[in-house]
TrEMBL record:
<keyword id="KW-0963">Cytoplasm</keyword>
<feature type="domain" description="SHSP">
    <location>
        <begin position="28"/>
        <end position="138"/>
    </location>
</feature>
<keyword id="KW-0143">Chaperone</keyword>
<protein>
    <recommendedName>
        <fullName>Small heat shock protein IbpA</fullName>
    </recommendedName>
</protein>
<keyword id="KW-0346">Stress response</keyword>
<dbReference type="GO" id="GO:0005737">
    <property type="term" value="C:cytoplasm"/>
</dbReference>
<comment type="subunit">
    <text>Monomer. Forms homomultimers of about 100-150 subunits at optimal growth temperatures. Conformation changes to monomers at high temperatures or high ionic concentrations.</text>
</comment>
<comment type="function">
    <text>Associates with aggregated proteins, together with IbpB, to stabilize and protect them from irreversible denaturation and extensive proteolysis during heat shock and oxidative stress. Aggregated proteins bound to the IbpAB complex are more efficiently refolded and reactivated by the ATP-dependent chaperone systems ClpB and DnaK/DnaJ/GrpE. Its activity is ATP-independent.</text>
</comment>
<comment type="similarity">
    <text>Belongs to the small heat shock protein (HSP20) family.</text>
</comment>
<dbReference type="Pfam" id="PF00011">
    <property type="entry name" value="HSP20"/>
</dbReference>
<dbReference type="GO" id="GO:0050821">
    <property type="term" value="P:protein stabilization"/>
</dbReference>
<dbReference type="InterPro" id="IPR023728">
    <property type="entry name" value="HSP20_IbpA"/>
</dbReference>
<dbReference type="InterPro" id="IPR037913">
    <property type="entry name" value="ACD_IbpA/B"/>
</dbReference>
<dbReference type="InterPro" id="IPR002068">
    <property type="entry name" value="A-crystallin/Hsp20_dom"/>
</dbReference>
<dbReference type="InterPro" id="IPR008978">
    <property type="entry name" value="HSP20-like_chaperone"/>
</dbReference>
């Protein structure tokens, strides 16, 4: 059983709509795990997403960050001739993969090397949000 009924959460929670929507959207992802990816913790505030995009050229990939959502799309040109395969083990289909980013996480750079797309992220917490020590007056 992989699907859960989240309706009771809607009745008993206030202000957690985003969390519940994340759970539901994660439950309904039907891309079949293509393309495969890794999420790596590089250091305390740095992360790296690595996506296997073999067969895609740099101009066929699109990376967009908007409202804490990172979207990576890969699409082959429509004018490619249809091929007749005797066996096809390499997936070359178009894809769209979305990642929900936490607050204050920004995309630093992206690069394509040997069929792997590396996207570097960094959490930059504003000074006002960092904990600070309060001195006790005598």
């Amino acid at each position: 059983m992989r699907n859960f009924d989240l309706a009771p959460l809607y009745r008993s929670s206030i202000g957690f709509d985003r969390l519940i929507n994340l759970l539901e959207s994660n439950q309904n992802q039907s891309n079949g795990g293509y393309p495969p990816y890794n999420v790596e913790l590089v250091s305390e505030n740095k992360y790296r997403i690595t996506i296997a995009v073999a067969g895609f050229a740099q101009q066929e990939l699109d990376i967009t960050a908007h409202d804490n959502m990172l979207t990576v799309r890969g699409s082959h040109p429509e004018e490619q001739a249809e091929k007749t395969y005797l066996y096809q083990g390499i997936a070359e289909r178009n894809f769209e993969r979305k990642f929900q980013l936490a607050d204050h996480v920004q995309v630093r750079d992206a690069r394509l090397e040997l069929g792997l797309l590396y996207i570097d992220l960094e959490r930059i917490v504003p000074e006002a949000m960092k904990p600070r020590r309060i001195e006790i007056l005598k």
